[in-house]
Amino acid sequence: MPHRVTLIPGDGIGPEVAEAAVRVLEATGVPIEWERVELNEEMILAAGGRIPEPVLASLHRTLVGLKGPVTTPVAGGFRSLNVQLRKALDLYANVRPVRRLPGLKTRYQDTPIDIIIFRENTEDLYSGLENEVVDGVVTSLKVITRRASTRIARYAFQYARKLGRKKITAIHKANIMKLGDGLFLECCRQVAQDFEEIQYTELIVDNAAMQLVMRPEQFDILLMPNLYGDIISDLAAGLVGGLGIVPGANMGDEHAVFEAVHGSAPDIAGRGVANPTALLQSAVLMLLHLGEEAAAMRIERALEAVHSEGKHLTRDLGGSATTREFTTAVIEKL
Ligand code: ATP
Questions:
Q1: Secondary-structure class of domain 107-239 per CATH
Q2: Residue 81 above 90 pLDDT?
Q3: What is the model's pTM?
Q4: Is any ligand 1 atom within 6 A of the Cβ of residue 187?
């Protein structure tokens, strides 16, 4: 039986990196029946700022998606589609493994970096609740609930237990947001009590940013509310070669949507130079979710081989290969 997967190429560099992922997945021989659904800025505008129905209908059928980025307008315009999708499917856990690819030359190439970020995916300042009180005064509501905080904490601890990871650090700013981030920490502490074998620590977000730059090797699993997760993920991506590298998974109890950490990169879109590694690594996470461990490992090893050889790197990593050339090199290594 083939796996049925919803493919959402997205916009910007999305279609270019999605094509790369489909080519590599096909080359593994894993039978996948794609349900391809289009999603881009114009379509969302035409649908009144909402996710078009066929996208949700497909994901309800397949329960698994591989998704490219979709542009969100800055300031005005519609509400982020990524945020809408995560809410609509209750994809409450955003999982982002940040790992140094063996052989890839980066600023931290001699530092063992193997961090997994768990980002709460449904609330916090992403609630979309903003209010212009009077002209020139705006409030943005940061929503933290016991339910969502406990859920993401439990997800992270269970994941850590399954993988035999040793330490979880909760990231917060509870010295300032005493109630909101205070509640988040209270939930993490409560859950930690059920996982005695895992060391639990806490770190204020600004200190965490500095520590990540100074001594990233000290971190194992990072657990945090939505907005810190967004910012710390990009910082962490910078430690291992940038946004072209780091994959992600949006997990719910029923659905799973796999997508790179990066956005639609309008500055390089349409030029065939984007690095597809981040979406390819997201596809690896998807294969693991589908129970296709052998194919996942083959892609991982092929990526490592191409990066350590260094002959077919894309421009973001100092090479001159196009997206297609890089992808062909990966397929040859499979
Ligand atoms: P968003 O807020 O939508 O997540 P962002 O602000 O993180 O987006 P991106 O669109 O991810 O921004 O792009 C940030 C920078 O990283 C840009 O200069 C872009 O070209 C670069 N970049 C992002 N993804 C890739 C990629 N796959 N390959 C090469 N460069 C990339």
A1: alpha beta
A2: no
A3: 0.94
A4: no
Helix (H) or strand (E) holding 34: strand 32-36
Q: What atom in ligand 1 is closest to the CA of residue 230? A: 4
CA 166 / ligand 1 centre spacing (Å):
31
**C-beta of residue 131 within 8 angstroms of C-beta of residue 139:** yes
Q: Give the residue, out of 39, 262, 323, 325, with the most ligand 1 atoms within 8 A of its beta carbon, to mutate for a pocket test.
A: 262
Task: Identify whether the C-beta of residue 99 lies closer than 8 Å to the C-beta of residue 219.
Answer: no
1-94+242-334 and 107-239 share one fold: yes
Residue nearest to atom 8 of ligand 1 (CA): 263
Q: Per-residue confidence at 80, pLDDT binned at 50, 70, 90?
A: confident
- Tell me whether strands 199-204 and 167-172 are parallel, antiparallel or unpaired: parallel
Q: Which fold has domain 1-94+242-334?
A: Isopropylmalate Dehydrogenase (3.40.718)
pLDDT tens-digit map of 45-64: 888 888 888 999 999 999 99
- Cβ 82 vs Cβ 50: under 8 Å: no
| Overall residue count recorded for the chain in this entry | 334
What is the SS3 string spanning 45-62? HHCCCCCCHHHHHHHHHH
Q: Domain residues of the chain, as ranges?
A: 1-94+242-334, 107-239
In the reported structure, the alpha carbon of residue 11 is separated from the centroid of ligand 1 by a whole-number distance in angstroms of: 12
Q: Is the CB of 264 under 6 A from ligand 1?
A: yes
